[in-house]
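Progress narrative, work stream C.
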Amino acid sequence: MRSRRWTNWILICFLACCLSISAKAAWGHAPDEVGGFEPVPNRIEEFDWQLPSWVPRPVVPDDNPMTAAKVELGRHLFYEPRLSVTGDFSCATCHLQHLAFADGKTLPAGATGEVHPRNSMGLTNVGYNSVQTWANPLMQHLEQQMLVPLFGEEPVELGMAGRENELLQTLQSDSDYQQRFQDAFDDESPVTVRNISLAIAAFERTLNSFDSPYDRYRYGGDATAISDAAKRGEALFNSERLECFHCHGGLNFSDSTRHERSGFTEIAFHNTGLYNIDGNGAYPSDNTGVQEITQKAADMGRFKAPTLRNIEVTAPYMHDGSVATLDEAIAHYSAGGRTISEGPHAGVGSQNPLKSSFIKGFSLTETEKQDLMAFLKSLTDETFLTNPKLSSPFE
């Protein structure tokens, strides 16, 4: 399975190049051992991001500038079920707005019913990610990533591999889409796979969430926006005792973040001791993290730390959805790794030799645990979860 997925990834990258996506957009910069990357200059644009003044804009590739027409086309395509082989499955099927564009399932199933090995990651502030998906250091751009659900075969998501002409004919025969593509792209024949990818990526860059109670407290100067318990929880979160902030810090509560003010861009992956099947650090063979790409033993079990914004509504957690609740997630980190006592995945995660040095374990009183929970829940942005500009245009 691992080699087949790698072959599938090579095919997607080849397709990206064939679709004339620039080399920078397709591959970014080669990662070094610590995950440092040079920042990509942001394009000066007139697009109205509707961001608070304290929030920097996301980085936008030079070959995909933001426009209102392109974003609106991308919104339609994001919710368009005709982009799937069955005609009833869209990007939004696995990315629901009221769940911060996650889906609430342990593991999703694609259009053909094939169950995926990884949990549907929420798309909160996805335009600020320095790397996309759970564990692929090469997947750095939304334009590039969109080709995977559209054409990937291991596993099947939208299932359109080999049906490119059929897809384009469907959109070309729709007069509304004809006009939207023409408005968005100054091309003689604008309905192309490349432009589908560019438009959806542009829409995804508007999935921005910076209006949580915590934001109003920390950046808006409203001392009453969060409770005293949440304020104590923030202090715990940022303490060396818990170490949370090392992997979930900064603007997006993730250490794989970049924006227009970034002095440098970090891409990081971490082993949190979720598994330790053989006592030597092994993870389930169909979900080995970055090791699947790099083939390096030290990368076993390393996955991206996703944003904690809207974490209250994105359960279940971890790359495989195997942690059901926030309470369980806190317990996992408190123990310094998960112990599975029986079954094929049995092992003591806290003893995983490949585990991050930040996962040391800690003890909390019940009051402290509730304080930490209150802080995490203060990151829920109800405006984002209900913003009509991000919702389906077909309802």
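Work stream C, second folded protein:
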Amino acid sequence: MHRFLREFWLFGLKQAYACMFGGYLLGLIFLTNYWYPFSLPRYDFLFLAAVAFQLFLLGFKFETPKEAIVIVLFHCVATGMELFKTSDAIGSWHYPEAFYFGIGNFPLFAGFMYSAVGSYLARIWRIFEFRYSAYPEAWKPVVLVVLIYINFFTHHYFYDLRWILLAASVILFGRTYIYFKVDQVYRRMPLLLGWLLVALFIWFGENIGTYSRAWVYPDQSSQWHMVSPSKLLAWYLLMMLSFVLVSFVHKPKFVRLTIPSGKVEHATSMDTPL
């Protein structure tokens, strides 16, 4: 019992540490919706606050230069999608307040909301010392996430392939387990379940963001209501994109699994590729 409580406590601390940037940004979004005494547009304040916090994380070594690279990559990928999704022709969602720091209908602070996801994954990958079993060949996830990213654009004009892409992710990663070390012992869980849980928490954060009117969907313009659970699929697919981007920086390490006579699968090495 003592060991369980210790691991549970450490798990929570490590998760909080990994969520540092995302929690900071979400907290500011919520707070400034109710109290904002400055003349500078709120979105611009959020942008400057996000940049300042990123510099703080780097300066005090809470974040490594490699993790900062992931944030920049994901920010660029997200900016392209945001510019398209918020354009007048598409209007998937919009930002109802004024801003100076932005491109088209897209305030630059919004890119950091995506960066927070990349920041979380990069940091948690390192502090939990992730390992994987039955991980697919490196080129296959890359091809899949490229198709996922393209579908975010093309589904407005052609058939939406997200369910096919979801099925492909299950085929590709259905046997993959992620091994993580909370304290001294490695635990494991299906990688797909891990992605789903993270997507669920992002969806909770999205509800806080839209409630605080940081951005709104067309059906929330007159009155707020919870974001449709169908958005979970979009966040799940975006999670895969973020994961693969992080894998370019934190190269996946593997475990070798053996099936002894008792047919109990176990890891015999934490650093040996399959």
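The beta strands are 102-103, 106-107, 131-133, 177-181, 186-190, 256-258, 266-269. No further action is required on this item.
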